[in-house]
Specification:
By secondary structure, the protein is of the alpha+beta class. 31% of the residues lie in helices and 21% in strands.
Length: 609
C-alpha cells in the first residue's frame, strides 16, 4: 500500500522527477522524461508495480526528513534501537543519462539496512530480466534498462522479484547507490563519483536560489515553492508541466483522476509569472521560445495543453492493470483536454508576455508576430462558448473567467503596443477590450444577488470570478467586486478552505459535468486571500493564507486539493497551480503596492529586437 499523498517528497533533475515516501520508498519515477512511462509506479498500485525501498531493517517510517538548505536534495533520518542513519536522495542535473543517487551514512551506533529495487517498466506492466556485471545489476526489458551500481561490501541477491541489498552501517560509513537509466541497446554505463555529484547538485541549486528577490516573512515557503516550480520545468525545451504525477485522486475512491504531466499554457503562464515575480528571468525566455515552437501553425489550432517538447497528440487512455492510488480508478495516461477550447489561455499567455516585458525581457519581433496572430483569432472568437478554466466535460458555456481573461489579452496587448511602439492595430484591440468588458458586465452579473456568476445566465458561484479583481478588470472598491468576494468566501467555504464551485447534488453532476466529490481547491484559497487583501480585509486575508499554507506537508509541498475533514492532501502533486498561487499571495501580503502590479503600465520603453 503506498503512502498518503502528503507522505511524499520530490526530487528531480529538471527533466523528470521522483516521489520519495516517508518509508524510504521511491514509489514514482518516469524515465527519461516527466511524461515517459513510469518504471516505479507503486504510487498507483503497490510494490508489484515497481519501486525502490531503502531503509533500516524492520523500520516502517523515518524519524524526520528535510531538504538540505535551498535545494532539491532530500535528507531522511532514521533512528533505531541500535543506531541512527541518514539517507540522502537526489537526482543530479542531467549531463548524459538520468540518475537517482541514494547515499546511506552512519550517524551513530550500528544499523542493519535493506534495499529492495523493483523496476517495472511501462507503468508497472513489464518485469525486466536482471543480469549481473562486475559492478552493476542490470534490469532490461524492451527499450529500457536500469543499471544499479552496488558499493563494494554490499550483499545483493534476487528475492521475491526484487534485487535485494543487505548491509550494515556504522558511524562514519558512507554507502552510495547509483541507479542509471539508459536505452537498452547501450552496453556500458558512464560511472560517476556520488560525492562529487552531490556537491555539484547543491552548488547549482545554491547558485539558482541566490536570485530570489522575495524577502518577506514567508521566505522559506516562497523559496520552496519557487524551487518546486523550477523542478517542474523541462530544461531542454523550457516547457513546464502542471504536476509530476498522473491520476492521484481528487477524492479517495473517486473517478476524478487526471494526467497532469504535460504543459498547460495556463499553468505554464502562471508558473512563469510567479518565477518572474520571484526574480527569475531565464525561465521566461526559455518558455517564450518553447511557446513559439509549440503553437506554430494556424491560430485556430491553438491547444490548451502540449507535451514537454510541444507534442500535440496526447491521447487519453486507461491503464487498467493499475488499481489506482488506494483503489482510486481509473488510472489515466494522456489528457483529453488537448481537444478542448479554453479561451482563457489567450489571456494567460499574453499577460505572461506582458509581465516578461515589464521585467526587462525584450520583446522579439517573432514573438510579437505570434501575439498579433493570436489576437486576430481572439478578435473573431472571444464571444464563443468554451470548456473554460475547469475543463468541463459537459456542454460548452460562456464562462465568466474565460471572458475576463479574453479581456486581459486585449488589455495587455494594447499596453505592450503602446510601450514598445511595435506595429499593431491598437484601435481594434481597444474596441475588442471595451466590447468584452461591456459583455461581461451585462451578462455575467446577477443583479438580484449582486454577484458575478460562473457563466452567463447561471446562478452558481465560481471561485474563478475572483479574477475580476485579480486582473484589474474592475477596481477592488467596486460594489460588484466586494459582493462577489464575500459570496465566494461565504458560499464556497469548505472547512475554512475554498471550493472551486458548488459540489454536485446527490446523484447528480457538478457544473463541470462530472459525478462524484472533490476536495477544496487550494489555489482558490490563495486567490480568495488575494481578493480579501485587495478589498481591504487584510486580517482575513492573512488568516486564510496561513491556513492554506499549513496544508503543506513536512517538506513544504502542496498538492492540488485538500480534504478539510480528513486533514489530507488530494490530487496530483506537487501541483504548480497551487505553488504559483502561494507565491503570488505572499507577495500580495508582503508588498501591498504590488498587489495588482500586472494591471499598471510598464515604466519606460522596453527594447524590441
Amino acid at each position: 500500500m503506498p503512502g498518503s499523498i502528503e507522505d511524499y517528497a520530490l526530487i528531480g533533475d529538471l527533466q523528470t522527477a521522483a516521489l520519495v515516501g516517508r518509508d524510504g520508498g521511491v514509489d514514482w519515477l518516469c524515465l527519461p522524461r516527466f511524461d515517459s512511462p513510469a518504471c516505479f509506479a507503486a504510487l498507483l498500485g503497490d510494490d508489484r508495480h515497481g519501486g525502490w525501498r531503502l531503509a533500516p531493517v524492520g523500520a516502517d517510517t523515518c524519524e524526520s526528513r528535510a531538504y538540505r538548505g535551498d535545494s532539491l536534495v532530500l535528507e531522511t533520518f532514521w533512528q533505531t534501537a541500535t543506531g541512527a542513519v541518514r539517507v540522502t536522495d537526489f537526482m543530479p542535473h542531467r549531463d548524459r543519462a538520468p540518475r537517482l543517487l541514494r547515499i546511506v551514512e552512519g550517524l551513530r551506533g550500528v544499523v542493519r539496512m535493506r534495499g529492495d529495487l523493483r523496476p517495472r517498466f511501462n507503468y508497472g506492466r513489464v518485469t525486466p530480466w536482471v543480469r549481473r556485471t562486475e559492478h552493476h545489476r542490470v534490469a532490461t526489458a524492451g527499450p529500457d534498462s536500469a543499471w544499479l551500481r552496488v558499493p563494494a561490501g554490499v550483499h545483493t541477491f534476487g528475492h521475491d522479484g526484487a534485487t535485494r541489498s543487505e548491509f550494515t552501517v556504522r558511524a562514519g560509513d558512507r554507502v552510495p547507490f547509483v541507479l542509471t537509466w539508459q536505452p537498452s541497446h547501450l552496453r556500458t554505463v558512464h560511472r560517476v563519483d556520488p560525492d562529487r555529484e552531490l556537491e555539484q547538485t547543491l552548488r547549482e541549486w545554491r547558485r539558482w536560489t541566490e536570485g530570489c528577490r522575495y524577502r518577506g516573512e514567508w521566505r522559506g515557503a516562497v523559496l520552496r515553492s519557487l524551487i518546486t516550480l523550477k523542478a517542474l520545468a523541462y530544461a531542454p525545451t523550457g516547457g513546464i508541466v502542471a504536476a509530476a504525477t498522473t491520476s492521484l485522486p481528487e477524492t479517495l475512491g473517486g473517478v476524478r483522476n487526471w494526467d497532469y504531466r504535460f504543459c498547460w499554457l495556463r499553468d505554464s503562464s502562471m508558473t512563469l509569472s510567479a518565477l518572474l515575480r520571484g526574480g527569475f528571468r531565464d525561465e521566461a525566455e526559455a518558455w517564450r521560445h518553447w511557446l513559439v515552437r509549440a503553437v506554430a501553425g494556424e491560430p485556430g489550432d491553438l491547444q490548451s495543453v502540449y507535451g514537454v517538447a510541444g507534442e500535440r497528440r496526447l491521447p487519453e487512455t486507461v491503464a487498467d492493470w493499475l488499481p489506482g492510488h488506494r483503489g482510486s480508478a481509473p488510472v489515466r495516461l494522456g489528457n483529453a483536454a488537448v481537444g478542448q477550447l479554453q479561451l482563457d489561455v489567450y489571456g494567460e499567455v499574453v499577460d505572461t508576455l506582458y509581465l516578461a516585458l515589464r521585467a526587462g525581457v525584450p520583446m522579439e519581433r517573432r514573438v510579437w508576430g505570434l501575439l498579433r496572430t493570436l489576437m486576430r483569432h481572439l478578435e473573431a472568437h472571444w464571444a464563443d462558448a468554451d470548456e473554460g478554466l475547469w475543463e468541463v466535460r459537459g456542454e460548452r458555456r460562456h464562462w465568466t473567467h474565460s471572458k475576463v481573461l479574453a479581456w486581459v489579452a486585449a488589455d495587455r496587448a494594447v499596453r505592450m503596443a503602446e510601450t514598445t511602439g511595435l506595429p499593431a492595430p491598437t484601435d481594434r484591440w481597444r474596441a475588442v477590450r471595451d466590447a468584452i468588458h461591456a459583455d461581461v458586465c451585462a451578462r455575467a452579473y446577477d443583479p438580484r444577488r449582486g454577484v458575478f456568476t460562473a457563466y452567463y445566465g447561471g446562478r452558481e458561484l465560481d471561485a474563478a470570478t475572483l479574477f475580476v479583481v485579480r486582473t484589474g478588470f474592475l477596481p477592488p472598491d467596486d460594489p460588484r467586486v466586494v459582493r462577489t468576494v464575500e459570496a465566494v468566501r461565504d458560499e464556497l467555504d469548505d472547512g475554512g478552505f475554498v471550493r472551486r464551485y458548488p459540489p454536485a447534488r446527490s446523484g447528480g453532476t457538478a457544473c463541470d459535468g462530472l459525478p462524484g466529490a472533490e476536495g477544496a481547491f487550494l489555489a482558490c484559497s490563495f486567490w480568495l486571500a488575494d481578493a480579501l487583501a485587495a478589498i481591504g480585509r487584510r486580517d482575513e486575508a492573512h488568516e486564510l493564507f496561513e491556513r492554506a499554507l499549513a496544508s503543506a506537508n513536512d517538506v513544504g509541498l502542496l498538492s492540488e486539493e485538500w480534504d478539510p475533514a480528513a486533514g489530507r492532501q488530494l490530487g496530483n502533486t506537487p501541483q504548480a497551480f497551487t505553488h504559483v498561487a502561494l507565491v503570488n499571495t505572499a507577495f500580495t501580503l508582503t508588498e501591498p503596492a504590488l498587489a495588482l502590479a500586472s494591471t499598471s503600465p510598464p515604466t519606460g520603453p522596453a527594447p524590441a529586437a
